[in-house]
């Protein structure tokens, strides 16, 4: 028994020595960051800081990669990590790291978080296409919203309860009735014998703010965030994009007027492709929302949490269900919209520095 104990102690001692030795000679080697990748990240960061460019999908990324304003780094054009490709180069003479997120909030959040924790990034410019809920704007216009919210976190109320009834777990601060709700019954097209709208079992969904854990806050102590402002300085600079000339035709199909860049009050994001007139109009009337997309608010929330300046430049590719009943406009105009967004990003970076 004693000898077994002694052998075990001896083994533990050797293991401790090995671990200590390993730690002092290798800064990396745990989790997903190999020694090789760690060295490359160090090398890249030494040449920073960079402006981070975050873009949802390849049809939005391609016009940037093909732009004459983008010059890929000759020696180190990209680093693949955790299913993402981080591209290095210069855009409008500014050092950038470009990352494609993939569709929707989770992907956008993960890719942005990786970008910000792995690399020396001084700010984030997010761009892409979006649905348009603002009747004063048209497809092809490029919008820069001052505030972004994630409108897909809901507390779905039980049938029978109404505005004056507390939500489940509301008293513990997990949920709130402060932001408001969507009442499905308001969209019924059925009336009773007296011509009054009747309710339905879907009742209300109450919109909720996100929980965030700021990088300089107390770990595990949540803060709430619904409207996330973009960076003040970036937003001021975006005002100068007003006179940027943008494309207005796809092949021989042209838009009714030349597109413009406009700063707007609000954009919203959720894991929902909105191609529905009633929901579009709810988002516009309730929130004064213009651009509707599936990523910007996720990028905004991560930048808020990491305390890094952020802006989103989103061109309008369709009317989010508010157009003709035949089809969604994105089928025709998404390529034009993506190009317009890239043109606005390039000019924005030129103006920023
Ligand atoms: C409501 O129902 C009537 C009759 O079924 C129909 O004509 C009308 O188009 C419907 N309205 C909407 C907004 O769906
Ligand atoms: C709604 O947003 C537009 C720009 O997007 C702005 O001009 C207008 O003042 C806003 N209205 C309200 C009530 O906030
Ligand atoms: C525009 O023309 C190109 C080349 O002929 C074609 O591949 C593309 O599908 C056209 N786009 C639209 C929206 O019609």
TrEMBL record:
GO biological process: nucleoside metabolic process
MF GO annotations: catalytic activity
The name this protein goes by in its record: Nucleoside phosphorylase domain-containing protein
UniProt signal peptide: 1-27
Record's keyword terms, sorted: Signal
Start and end residues of each Nucleoside phosphorylase domain: 51-349
Superkingdom assignment: Eukaryota
InterPro entries, per database record: Nucleoside_phosphorylase_d
Species of origin: Carya illinoinensis (Pecan)
Record-linked Pfam families: PNP_UDP_1 (PF01048)
């Amino acid at each position: 028994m004693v000898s077994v104990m002694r052998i075990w102690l001896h083994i533990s001692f050797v293991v401790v020595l090995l671990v200590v030795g390993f730690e002092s000679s290798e800064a990396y080697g745990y989790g997903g960051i190999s020694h090789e990748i760690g060295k490359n990240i160090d090398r890249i960061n030494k040449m920073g800081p960079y402006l981070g460019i975050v873009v949802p999908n390849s049809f939005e990324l391609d016009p940037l990669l093909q732009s004459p304003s983008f010059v890929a780094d000759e020696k180190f054009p990209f680093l693949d990590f955790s299913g993402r490709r981080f591209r290095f180069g210069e855009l409008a003479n500014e050092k950038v790291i470009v990352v494609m997120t993939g569709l929707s909030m989770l992907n956008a959040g993960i890719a942005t978080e990786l970008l910000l924790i792995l690399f020396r990034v001084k700010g984030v410019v997010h761009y892409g296409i979006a649905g348009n809920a603002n009747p004063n704007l048209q497809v092809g216009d490029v919008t820069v919203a001052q505030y972004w919210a994630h409108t897909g976190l809901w507390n779905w109320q039980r049938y029978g309860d109404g505005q004056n009834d507390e939500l489940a777990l509301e008293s513990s601060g997990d949920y709130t009735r402060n932001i408001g709700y969507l009442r499905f019954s308001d969209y019924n097209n059925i009336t009773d014998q007296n011509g009054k709208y009747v309710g339905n079992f879907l009742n209300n969904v109450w919109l909720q703010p996100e929980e965030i854990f700021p990088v300089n806050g107390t770990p595990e102590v949540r803060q709430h965030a619904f409207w996330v402002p973009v960076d003040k300085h970036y937003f001021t600079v975006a005002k100068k994009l007003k006179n940027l000339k943008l494309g207005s035709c796809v092949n021989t199909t042209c838009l009714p007027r030349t597109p413009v860049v406009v700063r707007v009050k609000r954009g919203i994001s959720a894991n929902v492709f909105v191609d529905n007139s009633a929901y579009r109009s709810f988002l516009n009337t309730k929130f004064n929302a213009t651009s509707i997309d599936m990523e910007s608010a996720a990028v905004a929330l991560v930048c808020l949490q990491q305390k890094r300046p952020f802006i989103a430049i989103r061109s309008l590719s369709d009317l989010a269900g508010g157009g003709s009943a035949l089809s969604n406009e994105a089928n025709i105009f998404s390529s034009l919209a993506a190009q317009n967004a890239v043109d606005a990003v390039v000019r924005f970076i030129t103006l920023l520095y």
